[in-house]
């Protein structure tokens, strides 16, 4: 009983809520070392690196943005050029079509004119030829008629055979003449 | 040593007292002090490995260190104080968090198996440091009268009860706060260690008795408690730092 009381009193002395001095000192020193290392060396170190990294990343982003802007402007330029080229091509095609159509129309008109000229020349030629032929024919017929008449008058018509021979001869002559004129 | 007749070596306050490893001129160096100093060595070594030669493209260790650093900086300091006011206190909070966490983790490390923070001296030192940061800061920021108003929450719009409020606030902020700040961490680790010791000792004790299946239950509870303690250790380190930040933020705030 008494021993128990003594033990209780001893435990009372070692109240866990009352800090012993030496432990306080060791705790303070242990923490002080940690704190000083972090404060003076480690945190400035890592903060520097984190800042550098952030700057590097931001720099990278800025570069990428610049590149993108440039690419965008080049693309727009290119697109504008392409549109201009298309426009130009369309204009040229249009022009060529117009020119072609005009050319065809001109050539057609020319052809028409030439044809008409040729036809007109042909008509004139034919008319002249016919006129000449008619004149020549008329001359020939007259001459022939005169010849025939002379022959008819000069030779006796009584004899049928002779007569027919004369006519044959005349016709042969005509043929020969025609042959000669061909 | 408690002895209730059956020979069960129940854990108690004696579980938190250690015989000195060596003694120099009356200074008794014990296991807890050794663990505290190893904690310092571990935190410093790890973060030196991580940040000592920090690179733009981080290695594995630096990546883990950065994750931890970022968790405290962004997740706790910036969240409570904002970036502008908080930046100055980042070193303090980062060292507090990792130091406390390692001190707690000893609870489940084989051979050590004792949370340094379950000895009141260690949380007390840390809570004291936080206390001596935020109290002078209050007066520095608001002047003598303003500082007292900030601490006591004195406000004319409260009418006659303002004196009552001021008294309660003075009591709770200036007197009780450092105590609760330290004890919250201490008591959690203390209780956790008691539970772990209890189930571990019980497993062994029951194994040597006729109640062998109960030893299995106790052993499973030991494993479960280790998992739970791992969680509590991190949470308590987080809570301690979060409260430290909120005290400093309160000291800087215009209106309490």
Give a brief description.
By secondary structure, chain A is mainly α. Chain A is built from 3 helices and no strands. Mean pLDDT of chain A is 81; it is low at 8-12.
Task: Tell me what the structure shows.
The complex is a heterodimer of chains A (182) and B (256). Chain A is mostly helical and 182 residues long. Chain A has one domain (50-181). Chain A is built from 3 helices and no strands. Chain A has helices spanning 2-13, 21-154, 160-181. Chain B has 256 residues and is mainly alpha-helical. Chain B is built from 6 helices and 2 strands. Chain B has helices at 31-51, 60-86, 90-105, 121-152, 162-207, 212-252; strands at residues 22-24, 27-29. Chain B has a two-stranded antiparallel sheet. In chain B, strand 1 (22-24) and strand 2 (27-29) form a beta hairpin. The radius of gyration of chain B is 22 Å and the shape is globular. The mean pLDDT of chain B is 84. At the A-B interface, helix 2 of A face helix 1, helix 2, helix 3, helix 4 and helix 5 of B. Chain A: Keywords: ATP synthesis, Cell membrane, CF(0), Coiled coil, Hydrogen ion transport, Ion transport, Membrane, Transmembrane, Transmembrane helix, Transport. Chain A: Pfam families: ATP-synt_B. Chain A: Belongs to the ATPase B chain family. Chain A: It comes from Streptomyces alboflavus.
């Amino acid at each position: 009983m008494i021993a128990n009381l003594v033990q209780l009193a001893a435990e009372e002395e070692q109240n866990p809520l009352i800090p012993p001095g030496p432990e306080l000192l060791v705790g303070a020193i242990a923490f002080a070392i940690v704190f000083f290392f972090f404060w003076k060396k480690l945190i400035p170190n890592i903060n520097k690196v984190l800042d550098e990294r952030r700057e590097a990343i931001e720099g990278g982003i800025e570069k990428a943005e610049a590149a993108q802007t440039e690419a965008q402007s080049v693309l727009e330029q290119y697109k504008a050029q392409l549109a201009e080229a298309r426009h130009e091509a369309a204009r040229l095609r249009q022009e060529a079509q117009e020119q072609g159509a005009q050319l065809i129309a001109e050539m057609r008109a020319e052809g028409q004119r030439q044809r008409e000229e040729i036809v007109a020349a042909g008509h004139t030629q034919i008319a002249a030829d016919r006129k000449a032929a008619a004149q020549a024919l008329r001359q020939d017929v007259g001459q022939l008629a005169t010849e025939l008449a002379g022959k008819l008058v000069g030779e006796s018509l009584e004899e049928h055979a002779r007569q027919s021979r004369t006519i044959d001869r005349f016709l042969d002559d005509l043929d020969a003449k025609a042959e000669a004129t061909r | 040593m408690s002895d209730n007749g059956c020979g069960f070596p129940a854990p108690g306050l004696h579980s938190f007292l250690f015989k000195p490893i060596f003694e120099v001129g009356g200074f008794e160096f014990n296991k807890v002090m050794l663990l505290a100093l190893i904690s310092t060595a571990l935190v410093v070594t790890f973060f030196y490995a991580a940040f000592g030669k920090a690179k733009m493209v981080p290695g594995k260790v630096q990546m883990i260190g950065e994750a931890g650093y970022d968790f405290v900086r962004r997740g706790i300091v910036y969240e409570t104080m904002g970036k502008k006011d908080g930046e100055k206190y980042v070193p303090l909070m980062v060292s507090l968090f990792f130091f406390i966490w390692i001190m707690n983790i000893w609870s489940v490390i084989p051979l050590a198996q004792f949370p340094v923070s379950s000895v009141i001296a260690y949380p007390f030192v840390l809570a004291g440091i936080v206390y001596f940061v935020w109290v002078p800061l209050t007066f520095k920021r608001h002047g003598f009268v303003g500082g007292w108003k900030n601490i006591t929450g004195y406000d004319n719009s409260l009418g006659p009860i303002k004196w009552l409020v001021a008294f309660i606030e003075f009591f709770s902020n200036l007197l009780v706060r450092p105590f609760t700040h330290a004890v919250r961490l201490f008591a959690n680790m203390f209780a956790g260690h008691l539970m772990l010791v209890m189930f571990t000792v019980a497993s062994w004790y029951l194994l040597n008795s006729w109640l062998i299946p109960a030893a299995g239950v106790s052993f499973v509870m030991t494993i479960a408690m280790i998992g739970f303690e791992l969680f509590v250790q991190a949470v308590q380190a987080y809570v301690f730092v979060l409260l430290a930040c909120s005290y400093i933020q309160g000291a800087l705030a215009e209106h309490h």
